[in-house]
Amino acid sequence: MRRVLVWVVTALGLASMSQMVAAQTISVSATYRERIAPPPDARLVAVLLDVSRADASALELGRTEITDAGAPPYEFEIEYDPAVIDPAHRYAVRSTLYSGDRMVFTTDAHVPVLTQGAPDRAEIVMIRVAQERAEAADAGGLVYGLNLPASFFGQLPCTDCDAIEHHLDLWPDQAFHLRRTWVGGNKDGTVQSDLGLWSALPEQNALKLWGLDDAHATWRIVDERTLQQLGTPEQGSGGTLTSDGSLAEADLEGMFLGGMMTYMADAATFTECLTGHTYPIAQEGDYLALERAYLDQNARPGAPLYVHVTGGLMMRPAMEGPDQRSLVVERYIRTRPGISCERQRANASLIGTYWRIDRLRGEPVEAAMGAREPHLLLTGGEDSRYAATVGCNQIAGGYEATGDVLSFGAGAATMMACPPPLDEMERRLADVLTSAKSYAISGETLALKDASGEVIALMTAVYFR
After folding, report:
1. Would you tell me how many other CB atoms lie within 10 Å of the CB of residue 146?
2. Gap between the Cα atoms of 181 and 164, Å rounded
3. CA-atom Rg of the chain in angstroms
4. pLDDT-derived band at 216, boundaries 50, 70, 90
5. What helix, strand, coil percent values describe the chain, rounded to 5?
């Protein structure tokens, strides 16, 4: 049973207890996007803060603590003294989930409440705090009985082809790489690459892969060197992968990747956000465009900068010593100054997310004064619908999404005359919706692609609208 402790802390000198009026409350809903169970001793702490002064520590005005918190979502209230609320000040809520004294999930930004148009309700999505890699590695080897790192190979059955060749690399820090190659059928020779983290399902003696796409695979651990896939026939249900106990990493290609780039003395590195693994960046492909974008941000030498690219992880010659697995940039996508990996480790959902439109056909999209923010919203259910606008007319219609395939049906639109530049942006939006054939999500970024795989739109997930 959950035990909830609530108390109020008022600012010294702002109000005495004798002057305090009846307490009011802020309603809070907190969750996290990772599909993993919380620790058994999960404890949630949420605080109301005065964050008005940038040059001073935030002042705590109220707090709620839930012991034996259990699984999300967490619904609760924070009491506060309305007498200390100044309409000219800014207030925000933060929440953190602990295991003992260790922080497991937390908010990486303040969620505004109470003043300056903010509501008296906070909806919070916490992000995962990275484990120490040694701790994760020890847990993987000890608990799940696999001799890692190791590579697993096999051909799995397929409903519309002869087989799907699998090459799965597992690391003890719970990272994985997966390369799948279709044999026979209409997709003969097609290669799909994925990477991410695996988590344990102890009750099934199995592992689940959480990667860049939504086709999460579950593998039963038959023994130290054998995995059996569980799932749908399209995923290769019933097949097995085997290992000789060694690691022979697969070449990965064609992935939509987000991570932190650093550059110093003509050497660039890339830390991929999902796995936390770091790679040198090969000076080939679209590398020069990526380097220019990095330098254009005026980052100090060696400063990390969040970047998006499409590319792969291949073996390349090192400046010194043996060959190294390196990031090969197929296409530079964009940079995002001020963003870190912490909030990008869980991908936003395609459906139900408010997607702010940032670029269409490579051109920036900005909200016009007095107009609605350019955005796209997809709703699920039996009647899947989309609604999109650049700030003038709204285009609405049906869509189909299967795997990474996404297509928009013909949309009906309101008929307002749009002034420049909205008129041109709206034509570009209609063209993008017509041309979109697939999509990729990396953290909070959505990319729409045309039939050739070119990125034709970039959007960013915005929460709590």
Report:
1. 22
2. 6
3. 25
4. low
5. 10, 45, 40
Q: Tell me the pLDDT of the chain averaged across its residues.
A: 83
Give the DSSP H/E element, type plus range, for residue 137. helix 133-144
pLDDT at 289: 96
C-alpha distances (whole Å) from 198 to each of 34, 128, 207, 274 are 12, 15, 6, 11
**Beta carbons of 335 and 329 less than 8 angstroms apart:** no
CB of 174 closer than 8 Å to CB of 193:
no
Mean pLDDT of 3-32: 59
- Cβ atoms of 30 and 46 closer than 8 Å: yes
Tens-place pLDDT, residues 134-148: 444 444 443 456 888
How far is 158 from 66, CA to CA, in rounded Å? 47
Ramachandran assignment for 189, one of left (phi > 0), alpha (psi -120 to 50 degrees), beta (any other): left
Query: Which residues have C-beta within 8 Å of that of residue 156, sequence separation ≥ 6?
Result: 163, 164, 166, 229, 235, 236, 238, 239, 241
What is the residue whose two structure tokens read 């705590």? 60
The more confident residue out of 310 and 128 is: 310
The pLDDT tens digits of the residues spanning 352-370 come to 888 999 999 999 998 888 7
User: Smallest Cα–Cα separation from 324: which of 275, 270, 285?
Assistant: 270
With beta carbons less than 8 A apart as the criterion, state whether 62 and 122 touch.
no
Dihedral sign for Cα atoms in the order 419, 423, 429, 430: positive
pTM: 0.66
